[in-house]
Amino acid sequence: MDQLETRELRYFLAVAQELHFGRAAERLAIAQPPLSRAIRQLERRLGVQLFVRNRRGVALTDAGEVLFREAGAALDAVTAAARRVRRAGDPKRSLVLATKAGASHELLRTLIDAHADERGTAPVEVLLCEVGEQARLLRSGEADVALMHRPFDDLAGFDTEDLLTEGQVAILPAEHPLASREQLTLAEVENVPDLPIARWPRLDGTYPDGPGPEVRTQSQLAQLVALGKTLLVIPASSRAWQWPEHVAVPVLDAPPVTTVIAWPPNSRSREIAALIRTAARLSGADQHPTVP
Q1: Mind listing the pLDDT tens digit for each residue in 219-258?
Q2: Which long-range contacts (CB under 8 A, 24 or more apart) does 75-80 make?
Q3: Cβ distance 248 to 169 under 8 Å?
Q4: What separation in angstroms does the CA of 3 have from each of 8, 46, 68, 132?
Q5: Interatomic CA distance for residues 182 and 170, integer angstroms
Q6: In angstroms, rounded to a whole number, what is the distance separating the alpha carbons of residues 173 and 242?
Q7: Phi/psi at 100 (5° precision)
Q8: Could you give the CA distance from residue 72 to residue 74 in angstroms, rounded to a whole number?
Q9: What is the maximal distance between C-alpha atoms in the chain?
């Protein structure tokens, strides 16, 4: 049988993450014997061994490694579906739009105002997040749509509509010599000894190599720039969050950045479709909008 129960997947993930049946049972708030029986039953139904059990402990088999990769995504999808169903059944439901705090501010404000002017549309609730979090919020069902940026954000698996393509600027400490320049090049901003570019975590949580400070939030980054410890290069429209201690200078040869509105694939939501149509109209893409 190929069918799997969500309870079985939760049990399996707990053991796979702890690599210890006792700790996994404690985490799940159940006794160890029922957990062991459930895992053995799962292995019999799948016809494979998921764990190697010996005196040295517990380890995943090759088949267990595959299920470990798949189980988390499957449980996330089930959770996301439940969230979307609950929201769809709420007569006072609103659309949740995720966006990086401070990003594409004018576009966001214009979109919300224009959508509110449309008759019979659902209200939009803005969910502000940190860099790179929109994809997770969409996949988990915590957000219905998101404003994201190509080529920086993870757009894999989503439907998208391009809204705005723009250049980038360097955000520098106001007292730095480069802040007086009318324009800069990437080579110049990437080779400032006293202002190494800040490093954001990758999708797996690790940081790329480099001398710049490790940052996780935009507030951290803003203060480090103000203190003269780092600089950053961002889309021109994202400079709305800059502090008085910051200066924005255009970077002429920085690759263009496209703001897109993204939503889960194969959506049949009338509310999402209405918001996408409004966004496409504002961007001038309403001749051939890719609406759900």
Answers
A1: 899 999 999 999 999 999 887 778 999 999 999 999 999 9
A2: 75/6, 75/9, 75/10, 75/13, 76/139, 76/140, 77/139, 78/6, 79/140, 79/141, 80/139, 80/140, 80/141
A3: yes
A4: 10, 9, 16, 33
A5: 11
A6: 10
A7: -65, 135
A8: 5
A9: 70
Contacts 24+ apart (CB under 8 A), 266-270: 266/292, 267/159, 267/292, 268/292, 269/88, 269/144
Within the chain, where are the H helices?
6-18, 21-28, 32-46, 62-88, 105-117, 134-140, 186-189, 218-226, 270-283
Range 117-126 average pLDDT: 89
Terminal-to-terminal C-alpha distance of the chain: 34
Among residues of the chain, what percentage have pLDDT more than 70? 94
Per-residue CA distances from 231 to 197, 223, 246 (Å): 5, 11, 10
pLDDT value, residue 109: 92
Residue ranges of domains in the chain, CATH in brackets: 6-86 (1.10.10.10), 94-166+257-283 (3.40.190.10), 168-251 (3.40.190.10)
- Per the CB < 8 A criterion, the answer to whether 292 and 273 are in contact is yes
Convert the pLDDT of each residue in 132-182 to its tens digit.
Answer: 889 989 988 889 999 999 998 989 989 999 999 999 999 999 999 999 999
Residue 87 in this model has a pLDDT that exceeds 80: no
Place of tokens 């709305």: 240
Contact assessment for residue 248 and residue 170, using Cβ atoms and an 8 Å cutoff: yes
In the 8-state DSSP scheme, what is residue 199?
B
Q: Report the C-alpha gap between 228 and 245 in whole angstroms.
A: 9
Which of 105-141 are b and which e, b meaning 16 or more Cβ less than 10 Å from the residue's Cβ? eebbeebbeebeeeeebbebebeebebbbbbbbbbeb
Across 51-63, average pLDDT: 88
98 three-class SS: strand
Q: Is the sign of the CA dihedral 74, 80, 81, 83 positive or negative?
A: positive
pTM of the model: 0.70
